[in-house]
Amino acid sequence: MGIVTSLPPSELQSSVPVVTGPVAAGGEDVLTRLVALIGEDLSACNTAIVARMHSQVALIPQLAAHIVAAGGKRLRPVLTLACARMCGYAGDRHINLAACVEFIHTATLLHDDVVDESVLRRGLASANAIFGNKASVLVGDFLFARAFQLMVADGSLEVLGILSQAAATIAEGEVLQLATQNDLGTDEARYLDVVRGKTAALFAAACEVGAVVADRPAAEAAALREYGTCLGIAFQLVDDALDYAADQETLGKTVGDDFREGKITLPVLVAYAAGSEADRVFWRRVIEDSEQTEADLAHAMALMENVDAIRITLDRAAEFADAAKAQLAVFPDSAYRASLMEVADYTVSRVR
Is the whole model's pTM more than 0.85, yes or no? Predict the structure, then answer.
């Protein structure tokens, strides 16, 4: 692999896609409506992302631009921007903090793809598949460092505490997932601990800092933190269901990745607990012993269908989405609150 030339900020800017949301049932584009409320803020956030991605080391902006340009919903920084505005914030601190949130998320994606030995990310070649594992890990480290620079520049110890704790919790969640991998003795509580760490922690921090920059009461910051936590859990539960039920053409989710990696997710736990002894023998072979054939994924999906494992997982996701919406009751009615409520609904509806 050769070293590529550095992209100047102007070209990096063109590589960062305009954020548009995924289409929910009935053709309604939930995130697009939310983005319309924060359009100027999001444009400023993208500019901040591009500026901080730039480096004289040629490979850094090239690799970072690859994963940023690969798409994605940019949901976490959008939540930071929307929560700040919902809380009445009129300044611009939330712009760089939203960029910080995106850098943390992107860094974790780079590291995750290396750990999972992934060759695809959102339907395209993953960064590590193109640039190699070493470059992906090191550029992920660079983005983490940029995130901490943004936290320090903000000057708030409270914000620094929230976001740095989230970064540490994400790492703990990933290690816990590694520890539970291939272990069918994992229970739902342990599984949810993994989800709270690796996914929900950043959702929670992204929302909470919106209240903090607006200098809102602690109760409101706590409500947004819990909103983010519940939203993140619902989001991950649905993603875990999609691994066994996705329409890859429309949702861009590769079916069976978690299965092949032996990840313990709720659909697997439900199917294992509710299955016959013969079913459990199958699950132990393919998950615990990692002995899989080409026909095993289809059989796993059939076993899940037999016990309604996907429906049960989505029902749990809906419970967390409802819990997220309930946290917004402390805020007055507004277009921002309505859109954040819709985001919670959309999180579950994308596979209903």
Answer: yes
